[in-house]
């Protein structure tokens, strides 16, 4: 639309310039006609004989018709009205003076507008003649200014019609150019959107010769990104195995050893194992969070988790319900969704009295981007508002009687942040705690 706007703006400016130039040219042409009559009168004036005699006709019958709009007038600069000679068309009146007598500039040809005796607007030419000993004379010739106005008005009408049609044609051709000429770029944009939504892994389709290299470079960039992530994933897995085996040996050896020293070794080894798992998970998630084209169906993951925790907490006889929108998908790895949702459902199961409800709502950010909020409610004792923020800090445990390392909620929060999501705790309508996990994703 900006191209159409600028096209109309340029046409408007061009029209203003052309109309100004045409008006100036029309005035100059009209002045030339008046100057021809003025020169004729000057020739009659300088002819041999008394300069105050009656002057002959100027060759245009309109000067003979009363109040025709065409007038001439000849007189000395300081002449009395009765001493001024004029055309019959002036009918005893006088033409307005453009320059008062005695002003500097005598001898120049002066141009301007004035009012006729019948209040009609006139275009006037003044010319000075110096006859030496016979004195100076001023010749004024006037014509109707509405001829100039009508001529300019006709030109403006034709110009407006022409430029309007030209503007419409330019706007139409610009829209056609945008619609068809830029279609390859729109296709490329849709292809990138499909990759970002996880519906494709590379840019596909036929593109013009100018855009094809860009599509090829984008595919190379995507492949390079996948290779880097795959190498990072491999290195993280290798590091996990390298650290977990010595820790397992230390824990096993400590299990068989008596005394307080062995107990402290077991305790610290368990802390080390949790910390190693925590940072390895963060490193793995950081490598995978930005992966393009990875989608996970949410409903199967949540259904699997609810069945699992219902079995784990069968002694509490919990009612775990899941009501999710059909086709809801998480834009990320299934393993990360399982870890985040699993930690939150596990935490809810520890504190719930009898019921847990898992729901989700979709938040549409724009035409192409959306997020979803996973809501996990329990009917447990809940938490005071001030304690909810403390709960998601790493290693914080408000009740040491419950099992756990204190890392679960902080892991969920860190994973959510890696996916540009968020975690917060609120009061649940069931009376307990509500965990709100916001993640990228939406419907299929």
Structure description:
The protein is α+β, with helices and mostly antiparallel strands and 444 residues long. The protein has 9 helices and 12 strands. The protein has helices at residues 2-46, 146-181, 183-196, 212-255, 260-289, 298-312, 334-351, 385-391, 408-418; strands at 71-75, 85-86, 110-115, 121-130, 136-144, 296-297, 319-323, 328-330, 355-364, 370-378, 422-427, 433-443. Strands 6, 7, 8, 9, 10, 11 and 12 form a 7-stranded mixed beta sheet that branches. A 5-stranded antiparallel beta sheet has the order 2-1-5-4-3. It starts with a helix and ends with a strand.
The total count of strands amounts to 12
Q: What is the average per-residue confidence, as pLDDT, rounded to a whole number? A: 83
Secondary-structure element sequence?
HEEEEEHHHHEHEEHEEHHEE
First-to-last CA distance: 32 Å
Content of β-strand: 15-25%
* Shape by Cα distribution: rod-shaped
Spatial extent as radius of gyration: 47 Å
| Class derived from helix and strand content | alpha+beta
Number of helices: 9
What is the percent of helical residues? 40-55%
Give a short account of the largest sheet: 7 strands, mixed
- Based on the structure, what is the oligomeric state of the protein chains? single chain
Return residue spans where pLDDT drops below 50 for at least 5 consecutive residues. none
């Amino acid at each position: 639309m900006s191209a159409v706007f600028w096209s109309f703006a340029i046409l408007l400016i061009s029209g203003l310039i052309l109309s100004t130039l045409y008006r100036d040219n029309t005035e100059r042409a009209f002045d030339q006609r008046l100057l021809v009559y003025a020169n004729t009168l000057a020739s009659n004036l300088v002819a041999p004989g008394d300069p105050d005699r009656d002057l002959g006709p100027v060759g245009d019958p309109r000067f003979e018709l009363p109040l025709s709009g065409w007038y001439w007038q000849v007189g000395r600069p300081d002449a009395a009205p009765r001493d001024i000679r004029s055309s019959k068309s002036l009918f005893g009146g006088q033409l307005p003076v453009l320059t008062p007598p005695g002003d500097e500039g005598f001898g120049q040809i002066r141009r301007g507008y004035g009012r006729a005796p019948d209040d009609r607007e006139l275009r006037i030419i003044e010319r000075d003649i110096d006859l030496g000993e016979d004195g100076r004379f001023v010749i004024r010739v006037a014509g109707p200014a509405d001829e100039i106005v009508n001529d300019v008005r006709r030109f403006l009408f034709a110009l407006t019609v022409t430029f309007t049609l030209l503007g419409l044609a330019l706007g139409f051709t610009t829209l056609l150019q945008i619609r068809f000429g830029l279609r390859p770029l729109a296709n490329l944009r849709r292809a990138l959107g499909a990759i970002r939504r996880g519906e494709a892994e590379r840019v596909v389709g036929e593109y013009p010769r100018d855009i094809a290299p860009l599509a090829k470079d984008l595919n190379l960039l995507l492949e390079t990104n996948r290779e880097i992530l795959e190498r990072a994933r491999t290195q993280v897995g290798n590091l996990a195995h390298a650290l977990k085996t010595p820790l397992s040996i230390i824990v096993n050896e400590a299990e068989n050893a008596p005394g307080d020293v062995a107990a402290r070794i077991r305790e610290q080894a368990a802390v080390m194992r949790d910390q190693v798992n925590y940072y390895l998970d963060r490193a793995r998630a950081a490598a995978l969070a930005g992966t393009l084209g990875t989608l996970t169906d949410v409903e199967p993951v949540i259904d699997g988790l609810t069945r699992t925790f219902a079995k784990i907490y069968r002694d509490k006889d919990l009612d775990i319900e899941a009501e999710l929108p059909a086709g809801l998908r998480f834009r990320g790895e299934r393993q990360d969704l399982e870890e985040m949702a699993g930690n939150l459902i596990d935490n809810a199961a520890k504190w719930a009295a009898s019921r847990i409800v898992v729901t989700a709502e979709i938040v549409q950010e724009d035409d192409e981007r959306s997020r979803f909020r996973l809501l996990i409610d329990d009917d447990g004792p809940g938490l005071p508002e001030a304690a909810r923020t403390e709960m998601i800090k790493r290693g914080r445990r408000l009740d040491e009687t419950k099992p756990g390392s204190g890392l679960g909620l902080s892991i969920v929060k860190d994973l959510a942040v890696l996916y540009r999501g968020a975690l917060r705790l609120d009061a649940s309508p069931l009376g307990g705690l509500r965990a709100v996990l916001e993640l990228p994703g939406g419907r299929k």
